[in-house]
Amino acid sequence: YFMIRTTGSEQIEILNIVSGTAVVRYKPSRNLRDANAWYHIVIAIDTTQAGGNRVKMYFNGERETNFDLNVEPNQNANVQYINDTTLHCIGRKDVTTDKYMKGVLSHYHFIDGTAYDATAFGEYDANGVWKIKTSPSVTYGTNGFFILKDGNSVT
Which pTM was predicted? Predict the structure, then answer.
């Protein structure tokens, strides 16, 4: 399975398990403690890149570089369950019906075939505050999609 989840220690974790082994596992040192804040999070996976650049995480436009856990995928590896037609569960764990996310998602983009950085989806305003782009100019690819918080989608 592949999942992006929040941990009990208020962190985001990326986890890809294949045959019981974590082939991708990233957990940044950063805690997301402000329950009243919106966080703009971009996760880009491109296994064709050199070591140290295959998985990138951005929080409010800044690339995360400090990780408690860092298991990088092999170069040119196919990260299972991402760019295929497997069921994608957003906001809940896929193997159960009682593990729902405690939060709100807005402007959820899933890109297939291109690893965009944070500037594709947001930018700093004149006051230096990171703001999302409500209509980014991106290509979604074969299995990509975009979901707005009110349930409307463009693909």
Answer: 0.86
